[in-house]
Structure formats: C-alpha cells, structure tokens
Specification:
Structural class: alpha+beta
Strand order of the largest sheet: 1-2-6-7-10-11-12-13
Strand content: 15-25%
Number of strands: 14
Helix content: 25-40%
Distance between the termini: 31 Å
Shape: globular
CATH topology of one domain: T-fold
CATH architecture of one domain: Orthogonal Bundle
Largest sheet: 8 strands, antiparallel
Order of helices and strands: EEHHEHHHEEHEEEEEHEHEEE
Number of helices: 8
Length: 335
C-alpha cells in the first residue's frame, strides 16, 4: 500500500548532558545510520560500553538487511519476489519470516474487512506510472487489475507454504515490512544485552526500548500537518507508526497519491495524517495504513476494543480525532 517513503514524522530524543559529556558511571549514547529498505534507519542505544553498543547495533542492522532480502518487492532475488513469480495455483515453501508477515497481514485484512490488503500490489503498480507523471489508468484498466486483488485468494499450507488462487496476484509488504524489521532489530539488540534504545525507520515507524538515562521514556513528536498542535507521546517498549497520503505539493497539484484503496482501486482521498502507538512495530505499521484508509469514524470503532493502542488523526486545518487506550498523546501547543 506504501511503495515509497512516507512523509517523515518529527522526532525528538531526550538526551541528557551524558550525550555530550559522559561520566564513568553513566551509560553513553551510540547513534548509527544505514540506508536500508529504501529509507534511512537510525538506531540510538545507551550502554556502558560504546564498543558493545556498536557491535549490537551492527548486528541489528544486519538483521534489517536480512528482513529486506526476504520482504522486498524491489529486489528480484528476494523471497517475496520469488513468491510473486511462482505461487499462482502452486504451493511454494517460503522462509519463516515471510510466512509470518503474510499470515499477520491477512489477519489485519480480516479485521479491517479488506481495507488493509497486501494483495493490492497490482493496483499499486498500475498507479505508479501516474504518480511518475503518465496518464492515469482508465476505469477499464482499473477494473481489470482489481480482479487480481483479494486477500482471500491467499492460501496458507502449514508450516511454511503459500499459494495464490489467482493467475495475476502479487503481494506488496510496504505497509507492514518496516514494522516487522524494527521488531526484529529490537530482538537482536535485546539478545545482545542492549536495554535502552530507539529504532527509527525513516520516521514512518519507530520502536522504543526502555528509556534514556534519567528519563522515564523516549519523547517523540508525531507528524503534524497543521504545524499548530505539536502532538507528543512518551514511548517505552512501544512502537509508533505514521501514514499519510502523498502531499500534492511534492508531486504536482493533481498527483493521485501513493496509498491505494483496494476496495475502490484508486488512491485514497484523505487529508489526515494518522499515527498509531502499539506494542509492536508490526501492529503499529499495519494499523496506521488501515486507519488512514478507514478514516476516523470507522477507525475509532475498529480499535476501541484493542488494549494498549492509541491513535490520532490530524488534518492540515488542525482537526483532530483521537482514541487512547494506550500511551497518552499530549499537545505541545493549542491550535
């Protein structure tokens, strides 16, 4: 559903004086960046040993690269690309990570009654040309490609086989892949003894582990298209993801936008930016796209019964809708 980098949310890390003047007893900060999955990943970690933190961060980045090698639809040799080429009416064995992500994505499809659907890839591909400046696809073209879409056509054969009950189905994990990547990176950091870290996947998904020294949590400023209310959240062992439609000014006034509604076959029409806080990146990433597609009214109904999940919709005119059964979202200033 997202085939390029979303607009980057604002981020503020609460560092103390230890970030610039470290003592012998206070953990030091190590910050590293890598370009992976079409965006810049940042990992900030505190540890008594900078070498230990650097080694753990390197291992976490290696895990993100591994996830990309399995989930990317841009790499022809990825596990997903191979599945997209060969699983039509034929069961293919896939790596456990890919099986898990696709299986989880289908659960969100069922939960959202098809609004979240990773099989939207043929429609995304159809609209890519229009996003690049070509003519928009005709209604006839859209209807033809819509026949390729539908999560119910994905068949799971335990333990790790998948087949497509469609001759033209393809999957796009852009709306869930980065969330899974930050989860896996966090697991690697924990296994390496890192307890306090922040993983930032290009601003679209972040995952907080523990807290900076002397702080109760990581302070994150959320995306605010109004530039008037400055929404903020304190994250501790939680993830936040943000989704919004492509900003027209970036691609021309009549740009169709990059997030495609699988129900209509067209780019979703919305002014909102949606941020979702949940326990895992997999969940926050999936839900942010889902809630953008559903809109505030239906989105509120979907997540009101979910424990430890918070969401905020913000429009450029500072209209705000929130649901908070998880971390509290506060506003730095009033519109």
């Amino acid at each position: 559903m997202r085939f390029n980098r979303p607009w980057i949310a604002a981020l503020l890390l609460i560092f103390s004086s230890a970030a610039s003047v470290q003592s012998t007893t206070r953990p030091g900060l190590v910050l590293q960046k890598r370009y992976i999955m079409g965006t810049v990943f940042e990992i900030a970690a505190y540890d008594q040993s900078s070498q230990h933190a650097s080694t753990a961060i390197d291992q976490a980045f290696q895990e993100i690269v591994h996830v990309d090698d399995e989930l990317s639809n841009y790499k022809s040799g990825s596990a997903l690309s191979k599945l997209n080429r060969s699983a039509h009416f034929h069961a293919e064995t896939v790596p456990s990570d890919l099986y898990r992500v696709i299986e989880t994505a289908v659960q969100f499809s069922k939960l959202s009654e098809g609004k979240f659907d990773i099989s939207v890839a043929p429609l995304v591909n159809l609209w890519k040309a229009a996003l690049s400046g070509d003519a928009e696809p005709t209604l006839e073209q859209q209807q033809k490609v819509k026949g390729c879409v539908g999560y119910k056509k994905i068949e799971f054969i335990a333990p790790r086989q998948i087949s497509f009950r469609s001759p033209c189905m393809q999957l796009d994990l852009g709306a869930i892949g980065k969330g899974y990547a930050v989860d896996r990176a966090a697991e690697v950091l924990r296994a390496g003894g890192i307890l306090n870290a922040l993983i930032n996947a290009g601003g679209s998904t972040m995952l907080a582990m523990g807290a900076p020294p002397g702080q109760s949590a990581w302070l994150v400023h959320l995306r605010d298209p109004s530039h008037k209310i400055d929404p903020q959240v304190m994250l501790k062992d939680e993830s936040v993801s943000t989704s919004e439609q492509t900003i027209p000014s970036l691609l021309g006034k009549d740009s169709p936008g990059h997030i495609i509604d699988p129900e209509t076959g067209q780019p979703v029409q919305t002014e909102f930016a949606v941020s979702v806080i949940a326990k895992t990146g997999l969940m926050s990433d999936s839900l942010s796209t889902t809630l953008l597609l559903l809109g505030p009214a239906k989105g509120r109904v979907l997540i009101q019964g979910m424990a430890e999940v918070s969401a905020i919709w913000i429009a450029p005119d500072a209209r705000v809708e929130t649901v908070m059964s998880g971390p509290q979202i506060v506003f730095g200033r009033k519109a």
